[in-house]
Amino acid sequence: MNALDGKIRGGRHFMSVRVYYEDTDFSGIVYHANYLRFMERGRTNYLRLLGADHRALFEAARQEAPGVAFVVRSMAIEFLKPARMDDVLEVVTVPEQVKGAPSRCISGSCEATSC
After folding, report:
1. Which of 45, 80, 90, 91 could form a disulfide with 5 if both were Cys (CB 3.0 to 4.6 A apart)?
2. What is the pTM of this model?
3. So what's the pLDDT on residue 31?
């Protein structure tokens, strides 16, 4: 674990993400699909901090249940404020339900602040 993984406080996972040029579109704001990448990083790092080893999970699934996959069934995103290059976003991941399948995890990028 390192600082890149973020921190868990009060049952929530917090992780900072800086917006780079590659994350933006021609107008200089974050391309909408990139928010999903930021949120997936938050979810992945949250699970990492809880001790889940993604490589081991995938290997175990491949051996024990070939053809079974981890999938996203649905998502809803509301864009409230655009983020721009060099902004720092705080991605907050909140577990809603964590038990067996299906598990539900809510991720959302919250505040955008300029450095």
Report:
1. 45
2. 0.77
3. 95
